[in-house]
Amino acid sequence: MIAEDRSEPDNPVRPPKPGTPALGVNIDHVATVRQARQTFEPDPAWAAMEAQLGGADAITFHLREDRRHINDRDARLLKEVVAIKLNMEMSVEPDIVKIAVGLKPEQCTLVPEKRQEVTTEGGLDVVGQRERVARAVKQLKKAGCTLSAFIEPIPAQIKASAAVGFDTVELWSGGYANAKTEDEKRERLQALREGIIVAQDAGLNVNVGHGLTYYNIAPVAALPGLQEFHIGHSIIARAMFVGIREAVRQMKELLIRYAPKGV
Ligand code: PXP
Q1: In angstroms, what is the span from residue 91 Cα to ligand 1's centroid?
Q2: 201 Cα–ligand 1 center, Å
C-alpha cells in the first residue's frame, strides 16, 4: 500500500513543521466521563477526531492496568482512526507491554503507575528500575515504536533514559504547575530549562507535560528546545464549554504565541 501524502499545506492532519511547537492532547478524561455511567458515550475516539480538527499534533491515551478510563477497545479504535501521531502512555508491566507491542502506536511513553493515584504522580524512576525499563524499551522498539520516558527533570534520570535506549524524554512539569510561590515556580522552571539542555546533550528529543493549563503555559512554552507539549485535563475541562475543537485551537494558539523567538 502506498503511504498517504499528508504534506499538503491545507491538510488539517499534516505533521507539524520541524521547529514549531506540537500539541499532544490527552483524551483520557473523555473516557472518565463515560465510565462514570459505564455506558457508550462520550467516546474517546470521537474526541480524538475533534482534537485533530482543532489542530492537535498528537493524541495521547493511557491504558492503565486497572482500565479505569481507557479500555482495550478504545486503544484499538484509536489506532485505527487517528491520522496524526498516536502516543500511548503505559506502565512497564509485561501485560501492558504485550498489548502495546501488538498495537504498535507510533510513540510509547513509559510512566509510573500506582493503583490509588488520581493521576500520574511524578516521573518514572529509570535509575531505580533500569533492568525492567530497559526490557520494555527493547521489546517496544522491536515493534517499531519510538520511546519516550516521562521523568522528572533530574540529570541522573535523563542520562539513564538515554542509556537504556529512549529516543525522547517527556519532562514532568507537575512540579512547576503545583508550585505554591513565585520563587518555587522560578526554581522549577530553571530545573526544566537545565533538564532540556542535559537531554539535548544526551541526544534526546525533549517533550514536556503534566499540570499545564491555559493560565500557566506561557513560561513553559517560552523555554527553548521543547518539541511536544502533552496536555489533558485543562483542555478537556475547557472543552465542556467551548467544545474540543475550539479548546485545542486556543491552546495551540498560546503555544505558538509564546514560543521562543526564532521558532
Ligand atoms: N503527560 C503524562 C505522561 C501524563 O501522565 C499526563 C496525565 O495523564 C499528562 C501528560 C497530562 O497531564 P494533565 O492532564 O495534567 O494535562
Answers
A1: 14
A2: 25
From 29, 69, 113, 210, the catalytic residue:
210
Q: Residue 108 sits in a domain of what CATH number?
A: 3.20.20.70
Q: Is 62 a catalytic residue?
A: yes
How many structural domains does the chain have? 1
Q: Give me the amino acid identity at 32.
A: T
Within-domain flag for 109: yes
Please give the residue range of the domain that contains residue 134. 22-257
Residues in the chain where the model's pLDDT stays below 70 = 1-18, 115-120, 262-263
Judge whether 262 lies within some domain: no
Catalytic residue (choose from 29, 50, 69, 89): 89
Q: Can you give the pLDDT at residue 113?
A: 85
Q: What is the pLDDT of residue 12?
A: 47
Assess if residue 16 is contained within a domain.
Answer: no
CB 51 within 8 A of CB 223: no
Beta strands 85-90 and 205-209: pairing type? unpaired
Residue 75 lies in a domain: yes
Known catalytic residue: 184? no
Residues 6+ apart with CB under 8 A from 71: 31, 63
